[in-house]
């Protein structure tokens, strides 16, 4: 016999279902008057430091159809590469930037849209700098466990080339699935759940 | 959102334990038809956490309104209340090490007592309750405890196979201390025979994991002549100590 480890098991995930908006964006779901506004709709204000960007995209299923009932959340560093989080030990992040956004995909177009800033570079665990990136978390009806991925910037070629996470991708042909493309004044980032262009999802 | 410190405890910065993907439902579960075209088919990229996942947003108690944790009243007209069995849902948010997790934002949503959601895409013929919206939220206290008040939701039919019904359930969205702990799940009710007939519950491979989502009727916490209580504990990923982490920049 040995001593028991006494660890618990994480609560099992279940799908967010078709009515995720009721819980996470009730004003979007036309349930007014309960909360003042929906959390995560505004990441920046007039004083936020950094380059303003817009990120637009769709989440596309295996029949090449955008999901109109999904919800995306993003988490990112500020312009200097610091996170607005108690676990950020390298100094204070920009107090005018939340770093976290939440957006349901539009019920007609299927697009999500984030008004944010371009993040700075954050060190990897060995001190090397990662390329600027934004973490995405996707939930929807039919998705049993929230999908984690990262958005990198296609126009950061040099930084991307030395990014230690991108370097871990064995099939180089799949790296572009993580790259947002410049599109007018913003970036376009489509997420493919299946198929030839299936986005790289993370077990992290 | 608030950057205010939640407690005097030193924040933890260790990486989270690897997620047990054999315990969670797999992506492809054909008995739940919608998953067929929405399930990634290629292998996931497995990585230890970086700062991007160890950190996460924090929400201050100041965002919570007086009625946010009272679904019986938060959408009701003044002096009225939602129809249905009155219940308290309470519990402890822990991590896999058994430590209470403070400052956790819990958001929940559910159907009304007749099994009807207040949503434009919902077509079940059960009546809407004019006094029930179906959403609420709260934040765990310094030891990881939470509670809220609602009506017990009803079971409802849904378009999957010809005659599939969901057991009564409440959806939960949970933020831990790091974005890697982000989780959405559902709470079921002790004794409900519908649990074992549901294709969505059935996506979870093991019985023990399903029982871990089933709240116990808690007669000790029941308020006499007012509301029964259900106890629903939630477990988030645990994390390593940073003491022995081999970091170039030190701890």
What are the defining features of this structure?
A: 204 residues, mainly beta, nine-stranded mixed sheet, 25% strand, globular, B: 251 residues, two-stranded antiparallel ribbon
Structure description:
The complex is a heterodimer of chains A (204) and B (251). With 204 residues, chain A is mostly beta strands. Chain A has 2 helices and 10 strands. In chain A, strands 1, 2, 3, 4, 5, 6, 7, 8 and 9 form a 9-stranded mixed β-sheet that branches. In chain A, a hairpin with a 7-residue loop joins strand 5 (133-139) and strand 6 (147-153). The radius of gyration of chain B is 20 Å and the shape is globular. The two termini of chain B are 27 Å apart. Strand 10 (202-203) of chain A pairs parallel with strand 1 (45-46) of chain B.
Task: Quickly describe the structure.
With 204 residues, chain A is mainly beta. Chain A has helices at residues 20-24, 157-161, and strands at residues 52-60, 71-75, 100-104, 111-117, 133-139, 147-153, 179-183, 186-188, 191-192, 202-203. In chain A, strands 1, 2, 3, 4, 5, 6, 7, 8 and 9 form a 9-stranded mixed β-sheet that branches.
Q: What would you call the structural class of chain B?
A: mainly beta
Radius of gyration of chain B: 20 Å
Helix percent band of chain A: under 10%
Helix content of chain B: under 10%
Oligomer: heterodimer
Main beta sheet of chain A, described? 9 strands, mixed
Mean pLDDT of chain A: 97
Q: Tell me about the biggest sheet of chain B? A: 9 strands, mixed
General shape of chain A? globular
Number-wise, the strands of chain A total 10
Cα-atom Rg of chain A, whole angstroms? 18 Å
- How large is the share of residues in beta strands of chain B? 15-25%
Shape of chain B: globular
Spans where pLDDT lies below 50 across 5 or more residues of chain A: none
Total helical elements of chain B: 2
Number of strands of chain B: 12
């Amino acid at each position: 016999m040995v001593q028991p480890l006494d660890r618990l098991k994480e609560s099992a995930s279940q799908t967010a279902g078709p009515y995720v908006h009721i819980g996470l964006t009730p004003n979007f779901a036309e349930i007014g008057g309960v909360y003042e506004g929906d959390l995560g709709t505004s990441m920046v204000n007039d004083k936020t430091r950094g380059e303003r960007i817009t990120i637009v995209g769709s989440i596309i299923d295996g029949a090449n159809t955008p999901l109109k009932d999904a919800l995306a959340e993003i988490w990112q560093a500020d312009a200097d590469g610091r996170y607005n989080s108690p676990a950020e030990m390298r100094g204070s992040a920009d107090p005018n930037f939340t770093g976290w956004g939440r957006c349901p995909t539009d019920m007609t177009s299927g697009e999500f849209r984030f008004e944010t800033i371009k993040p700075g570079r954050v060190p990897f665990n060995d001190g090397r700098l990662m390329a600027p990136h934004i973490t995405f978390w996707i939930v929807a009806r039919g998705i049993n466990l929230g999908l984690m991925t990262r958005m990198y910037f296609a126009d950061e070629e040099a930084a991307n080339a030395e990014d230690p996470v991108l370097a871990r991708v064995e099939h180089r042909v799949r790296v572009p699935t993580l790259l947002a493309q410049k599109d007018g004044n913003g970036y376009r980032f489509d997420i493919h759940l299946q198929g030839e262009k299936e986005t790289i999802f993370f077990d992290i | 959102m608030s950057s205010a410190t939640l407690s005097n405890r030193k924040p933890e910065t260790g990486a989270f334990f690897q997620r047990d993907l054999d315990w969670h439902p797999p992506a492809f579960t054909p008995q739940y038809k919608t998953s067929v075209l929405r399930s990634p088919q290629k292998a996931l990229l497995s990585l230890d956490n970086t700062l991007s996942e160890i950190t996460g947003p924090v929400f201050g108690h100041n965002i919570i309104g007086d009625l946010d944790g009272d679904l019986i009243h938060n959408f009701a007209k003044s002096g009225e209340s939602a129809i249905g069995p009155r219940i308290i849902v309470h519990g402890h948010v822990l991590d896999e090490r058994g430590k209470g997790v403070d400052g956790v934002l819990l958001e929940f949503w559910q159907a009304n007592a007749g099994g009807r959601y207040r949503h434009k895409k919902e077509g079940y013929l059960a009546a809407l309750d004019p006094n029930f919206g179906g959403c609420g939220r709260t934040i765990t206290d310094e030891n990881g405890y939470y509670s809220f008040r609602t009506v017990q939701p009803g079971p409802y039919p849904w378009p999957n196979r010809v005659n599939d019904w969901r057991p009564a359930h409440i959806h939960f969205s949970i933020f831990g201390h790091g974005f890697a702990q982000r989780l959405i799940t559902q709470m079921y009710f002790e004794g409900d025979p519908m649990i074992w007939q549901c294709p969505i519950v059935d996506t979870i491979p093991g019985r023990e994991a399903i029982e871990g989502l089933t709240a116990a009727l808690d007669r000790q916490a029941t308020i006499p002549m007012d509301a029964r209580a259900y106890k629903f504990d939630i477990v988030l990923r645990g994390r390593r100590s940073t003491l022995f982490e081999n970091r170039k920049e030190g701890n």
